Amino acid sequence: MEKMEKKSSLMKHSLRRRHFFTWIILSMVLPVLFIVSWRAIPVSFSHPEIIKPSTPGVEEALSSNQPWAQTFQFRKGSQYYLEVQINKPLLAPGTVLYIGKSDSSTFEESVLLGRIESMRTYQFKTSENIEGKGSFLLFFDPFHRKVIHRMPI
């Protein structure tokens, strides 16, 4: 019994007093800090600079009637290249391009070209002349595992 009483009296009077006053001060300061921080929250988060698109020409591209992408094929020596110009912002990050033989082609049956990420022009090597053969460009979303756009070449 004496050991239990000794352990409970480990907190000396000066330590108890400091502990008591610390809690008294915290109980007065914390509500004031909460009220001040609550009032510091802005009413409206709309800021004109945040609403503007970060990529130049995004608004024009979305509102215009131009095609989503344009393709051009050219040849350098014996190698064929397919140039794909993306005109509108991509709906899925990390979109992958495939060449399909028909409109109903799935990406498993198609030939992988490469990955596109933003509005710009991309060049891909192709093994043959694919223009005018009824081929389609498949825009594939690898995260949702679905074709998001098909475009004739």
Question: Care to describe what's here?
Answer:
There is one protein chain. With 153 residues, the chain is α+β, with helices and mostly antiparallel strands. It folds into 2 domains: 2-40; 58-152, Immunoglobulin-like (Sandwich). Helices cover 29% and strands 31% of the residues. It has helices spanning 2-8, 13-40, 48-51, 58-63; strands spanning 69-76, 79-86, 95-100, 111-116, 121-126, 136-141, 146-152. It starts with a helix and ends with a strand. Residues 46-63 have low confidence and may be disordered.
Topology, element by element:
Layout: H1 2-8, H2 13-40, H3 48-51, H4 58-63, E1 69-76, E2 79-86, E3 95-100, E4 111-116, E5 121-126, E6 136-141, E7 146-152
Structural class designation: alpha+beta
How would you write the strand order of the largest sheet? Answer: 4-3-6-7
- Helical residue percent? 25-40%
Q: Mind describing the biggest β-sheet?
A: 4 strands, antiparallel
Span between termini:
91 Å
Report low-confidence residues grouped into runs of 5 or more: 46-63
Instruction: Give, in order, the helices and strands.
Output: HHHHEEEEEEE
Question: Compute the gyration radius: what is it?
Answer: 32 Å
CATH architecture of the largest domain: Sandwich
Total helical segments: 4
Q: Care to count the β-strands?
A: 7
**Would you tell me the overall average pLDDT?**
76
What is the CATH class name of the largest domain?
Mainly Beta
In the CATH scheme, what's the topology name of the largest domain?
Answer: Immunoglobulin-like
